[in-house]
Amino acid sequence: MSVCPFLNKLTPSVMQRTYTALNYPFFTEGDYNVNVFGIRNTENKDSNNFNDCVGIVYKVNDEWRIKKYDATVDPGVAGRLKPQNCNGTAILVPGYYKGAYAVGLHHGKYQALRQVKPMKYWRDNNRDKILDLSGKQYEEIAYTNIHRATAIPGGKSINVDNWSLGCSVIAASNDFNEFMSVINKAKDKWGNSFSYALFTEDQIKF
User: Fold this and answer.
1) Alpha carbons within 13 A on the beta-carbon side of 132
2) CB-neighbour burial class of residue 193 (10 A; exposed 0-12, middle 13-18, buried 19+)
3) For the chain: N or C, fewer Cβ within 10 A?
């Protein structure tokens, strides 16, 4: 069962309307020309579970497909209480980040989407459990990659904790493997550069 409350409402047409409403590029030509996105659930700013979404929308043989997964786009409570950066724990600002990722190694261990261009962040530095989604913005390469939580085959993590210090993290290992399978097909066809659109739930055009 999905933790993300709006996951089942996401369709290719919903995502295309959302990209278009915000004037974000939306790829429609060719197989595996992927649109990679994340959606932040803003209802629970103290959440420590995978109640957000990471997904991809793309075409195969002129038919739209969407993959969408329980994920977090926020740092876990552990990172909020004890930031490892002197400015605070990174929280990605919603927006469209052109060519921000490439297939590479996460922490040198396994294949994921690795940040290669600067992105915008808030820095949460007041050491409480509440996400600080405002304030000064920092534009930097913070290596907030798109990766998985548990490596256990068939496993799915429940709590974010240290799985994310600002990364977008897919909760289930099988979901992440499926995600990377599509990403690698896209890489082989279109090259190793991936844009990322981060939305908030209230921006989605259901």
Assistant:
1) 19
2) middle
3) N
β-strands 194-200, 35-40 pairing: parallel
CA atoms of 82 and 125, how far apart (whole Å): 9
Residue 45: pLDDT band with limits 50, 70, 90: confident
pTM for this entry: 0.97
CA atoms within 13 A on the CB side of 144: 30
* pLDDT tens, position by position, 106-134: 999 999 999 999 999 999 999 999 999 99
Question: DSSP 3-state assignment of 20?
Answer: helix
81 located within any domain: yes
Task: Count how many domains the chain has.
Answer: 1
Domain assignment present for 1: no
What is the dihedral sign for C-alpha 90, 95, 97, 101? positive
